[in-house]
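Researcher: Here's a chain I'd like modeled. Treat it as a single chain, no partners, no ligands.
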Amino acid sequence: IIRAVSPHFTEDPVRALRAARQAAEFGFSIAEQTSRYMHACREELKGEPQERIVAELRRALQAERPSVFFRALERAGILSVTFPELSLLIGKTQPQEYHPEGDAWQHTLLVVDRAASKTANVAARFAALVHDLGKGMTPKAMEPHHYGHEQRGLEQLAAWDRRVTLPKDWLRAGRFLIEQHMRAPLLERPGKIAALLLAIDKQRSVLTLADFNAVIEADHHSLPDYLRHGERLLAAMHGISGKDAPKELRGRAIGQWLAGRQTARLVRELAALRAASRSGDAGTV
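Model: Modeled as a single isolated chain. Structure tokens:
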């Protein structure tokens, strides 16, 4: 149990975040009196340098279960002053058949813990945390549906960055997952699948395919076959280069030729994977 030894706890308001972060790191609970001390830091936290808050967030995201950090802040009544964009998710209803876990806040905490179990990349864990950020701005009349929450999520993330200045790799990973998390499991057209895989590959300095898959699977409970076999498909597509284009092609025509050839290669690889799966040899391909 994390327990403050005196009221002097409140002299440094960031101790409130530190207590929540240590609860996540060590799997401890927080004593009720300490939670009240944390609440007493509420007003001072509003003026605290954001760099200190981001530093605690980074360490919390490295924990085995980051959700413990956020639940502790919520319980102490300080989530809305430390991470107001996240606090707006509380009470945002969702279709129960798809989200039996509850509102958008409960879903977000579940997803970030699931993602954390599959990737140690803090940028990917942050992306899991913000993937549904836009649901906090859904008009009440639209609930439990959240049409267009991707665009609202990008706007909310931009507002958070203006308020705090987020690490650039977090921001880049967060934007990408907000944009792609709804469409990725639904893609069927080969050209769009090829384009998304190549786009993920371009993100690899901050977010690898494995990181992307960790968040998508945490959100949707499964992966489409093109993501499960994404490394093989990318390797096949990278086997074709613009240098192989007919010499008479110029400019954009080379890019169009390359995209067409890469998509055709992807179609063949997917067909081979699916055929092997039907024959029971999926483990060998």
